[in-house]
Specification:
The chain is of the alpha+beta class. It contains 13 helices and eight strands.
Length: about 400
């Protein structure tokens, strides 16, 4: 029984016949994602982020990861660092593989004497290949991280403005607002999860955060394009409401969204498994984590957030409210006709809405709706040049 039910679910996913009432249950999704959004905001405010040296400033010390006795571990480096100056290193990570691998130690800003003491201790305790001359240091200014943050915020603002203009022109204002809300939702939740896990925020994190916005927008545009197709001319039809047509569009693109997201996640998982696990490139985890979370959240927001919000905005328009009332009236009339109740002239006394219940009229309306849907995807016919040059001559052709 359970297996049959699972097969039924997958079949409905592939068919896309509107079996999943996503838009109709939008208040449930608002509550769920709203709670997650609130939790992420609280995490950001109360816990904050583990800002890297590029944002806070400090000292970076780098040394070979190989010694005469074997590979030097990051724990050994941290212990030697702390014994030397009685201060803890902020982080230590191995970068690269094989003979070219190095260990990078980051800490708060150290004086020249402290740096010299640390270098000597690392050389004496761990004996890296090449001796003390291979241990280098560099100072990182916090102003550079501030410049990165400022530029990222400017880029984010320009991105949102360009998205709003494009969607408002290509689709409509309601969809533009809904898409921006969904993208902002993705950014906040991704940042909240980053704060929860405590990964170091590096420039790679900022780059990854900007890249997920494009993916989230792409998935939303795919859904909105189908919504636009399904709702073309809907004010003159009474077979379904705007919300029902939008829900059908979400169902029709649901499997595509799932497949696209899964395919996009594969290289990111490879980045985590191979880049971090096998190659030991610790800096890649910052980029991989933000993309992993962002792609997953972006796919969910395009389905459960963007389209329902667009429907709520559209349903504030009196024209769409009136169309929904006509749909309800038609269905009530059909229900009464099916139950044998008398319907006179197709008028509904309690709503004041006049609606035809004649079978031929309904069939004609269905043909009109199918024709509109077909016309939405069919290219317009262009007359051939030979047809354009042909003129009536008055002569009879034999």
């Amino acid at each position: 029984m359970a297996e049959g039910k699972k097969l039924g679910i997958f079949k409905r996913l592939y068919v896309g016949n509107g079996a999943f009432d996503i838009v109709g249950k939008r208040k449930r999704w608002y509550a769920i994602f709203g709670a997650v959004l609130l939790a992420c905001i609280l995490l950001i405010v109360l816990k904050g982020f583990n800002l890297g040296i590029d944002f806070t400033g400090g000292t970076r010390i780098q040394m070979p990861a190989q010694s005469a006795s074997g590979t030097i571990t990051t724990d050994a480096v941290k212990e030697s660092f702390q014994r030397a100056i009685d201060k803890e290193a902020t982080s230590a990570q191995t970068v690269g593989t094989g003979d070219s691998a190095t260990v990078q130690v980051r800490s708060e800003t150290l004086s020249a004497d402290e740096i010299a003491t640390v270098k000597e201790a690392l050389n004496n305790d761990l004996k890296p290949e090449g001796g003390i001359g291979t241990i280098s240091d560099s100072a990182v200014s916090a102003s550079w991280g501030g410049e990165i943050t400022t530029q990222a915020l400017i880029a984010l603002g320009v991105f949102f403005l360009a998205v709003a203009i494009f969607l408002a022109l290509y689709f409509e204002l309601a969809m533009a607002v809904a898409a921006l809300v969904a993208v902002a939702h993705d950014v906040v939740i991704t940042a909240g999860i980053y704060s929860l896990i405590g990964f170091e925020v590096s420039p790679a994190t900022v780059v990854g955060l900007l890249t997920i916005l494009g993916f989230s927008l792409y998935d939303t545009v795919v859904v909105f394009d189908k919504v636009k197709e399904n709702t073309r001319g809907i004010l003159g039809l009474t077979r379904r409401t705007y919300g029902e047509a939008a829900n059908l569009a979400v169902n029709q693109t649901l499997m595509r969204s799932i497949n696209t997201s899964l395919i996009a996640l594969l290289p990111v998982l490879g980045l985590l498994a191979i880049g971090v696990g096998l190659l030991g490139v610790g800096t890649l985890k910052d980029l991989a984590l933000v993309q992993l979370v962002g792609i997953a959240i972006g796919a969910l927001s395009s389905i459960y957030i963007a389209t329902p919000i667009a429907v709520d905005i559209k349903m504030r328009d009196p024209k769409y409210k009136a169309q929904a009332a006509r749909v309800k009236a038609r269905r009530d009339n059909l229900a009464r006709k099916a139950s044998g109740e008398a319907v006179t002239g197709g008028s509904v006394a309690d709503t004041g809405v006049v609606e035809s219940t004649d079978d031929e009229s309904l069939a004609a309306e269905l043909r009109k709706e199918k024709a509109m849907a077909a016309a939405a995807g069919a290219p317009s016919r262009t007359a051939k040049s030979s047809d354009a040059r042909r003129r009536p001559t008055g002569k009879k052709h034999r």
